[in-house]
Amino acid sequence: MVKSQSAMEYLMTYGWAILIIAVVLGILFQLGVFSGGNFAPKAQAGSCQVQKSAAGVSLEGQCNGMLPEFVLATNNRAVEGITIPYPTFNFSESVWYLDENGGSYTGCGPPAFCSTPVTDIYNALLSGGVGSSQNFDFGAMGANEGNSVTFGIYWPTNAYQCNTATGSMTPGRWNNVIATVQNYNVIDIYINGVVSIQCASGVVVTTLGSNMLAPAAAIGSNPPGGDEITGNLEVSNLQIYNTTLSAAEALALYQEGIGGAPIRPQNIAGWWPLNGNINDYSGNNNNGQVGTGTGGGTATFTSSWTGSYTAP
Q: How far is CA 119 from CA 100, 234, 272, 294, in A?
């Protein structure tokens, strides 16, 4: 009886403290404080890159998929004017991103994307958006307020968008989206390694004429110089290929994780890990600059991102 009374008194005395500790631990766990990514070693900028020489194409450096130290945080701004090689009629794009809130843009309408702009490939000699002086928007990717993913191809008299539900995407978490394009016609969108939709525009483009005079990539805006600027978006590991990736390659690229190297180095047109800089590590040296974008270009890099990332 005495022992039972002592036990009850102990619980009454320390029970609230134990409960508070349990609640705090639960909150910290939900915030990702105990995520393995917070304690894993991080890759430095440029630790893995594509080398192109007379002997061929190879990966050099620490290319084992280590987590990056930094990711790009757009902060309601955009980075534009990243020169890229012409990616041919068949191309693919892969990007990791976290969209916490919707885009901050006004007045967008068809054929523009009414969505949070993630990336865009465009004619750098023109600006103002599709339907204005920007008469060719090569390929654009947007996340429609967390409800869908959009990829589109434009040319002067036609506009085509491929939309898919977010499916396996987890809100508030990092996700990988890959879009592959065959002959500017068939578009496949992969979400976290699994094909979500296949679209066919029915229009086969055989020439672009003067519509793609100076290909360039933008992060956080679409169209360049237009009114669609991203909100609170974090972006990592943007890869552009001059070939159409297969379903097996798209899955393998996702399974490499957010720090993965190009799956086909011989076909990489541009690779921006966004790990502390906007340098191109594809061997083409098409480096970008923070500060060249719409809205002042105050995009920055952050190291506080791993709590929202779950490895494949």
A: 16, 12, 12, 13
pTM tops 0.85: no
Residue 164, strand partner residues: 149
117-135 pLDDT tens trace: 888 888 777 655 544 555 5
Could you tell me if 213 and 123 are in contact, meaning their C-beta atoms sit under 8 angstroms apart?
A: yes
pLDDT in tens, 33-86: 544 445 567 898 889 999 988 888 999 988 988 999 999 998 777 787 788 887
Q: How far apart are CA 59 and CA 254, in angstroms?
A: 18
Residue type, 223: P
The answer to whether the CB of 216 falls within 8 A of the CB of 82 is: yes
Query: pLDDT: is 171 or 34 the higher one?
Result: 171
Beta strands in the chain (DSSP E): 42-43, 48-53, 56-61, 67-68, 71-73, 79-83, 91-99, 104-105, 116-123, 137-143, 148-155, 158-165, 175-182, 186-191, 194-200, 215-219, 228-229, 233-241, 268-272, 300-302
Q: What percentage of the chain reaches a pLDDT higher than 90?
A: 34
How does DSSP assign 234-259, residue by residue?
A: EEEEEEEESSPPPHHHHHHHHHT-TT
- 11 three-class SS: helix
Evaluate whether 187 touches 151 at the Cβ level (below 8 Å): yes
- What's the Cα-to-Cα distance from 135 to each of 158, 187, 226, rounded to whole Å? 10, 21, 12
Q: What is the DSSP letter of 89?
A: S
Domains in the chain (CATH in brackets) are: 36-308 (2.60.120.200)
CA distance 41 to 30: 22
Tell me the C-alpha distance between 261 and 266, whole Å.
12
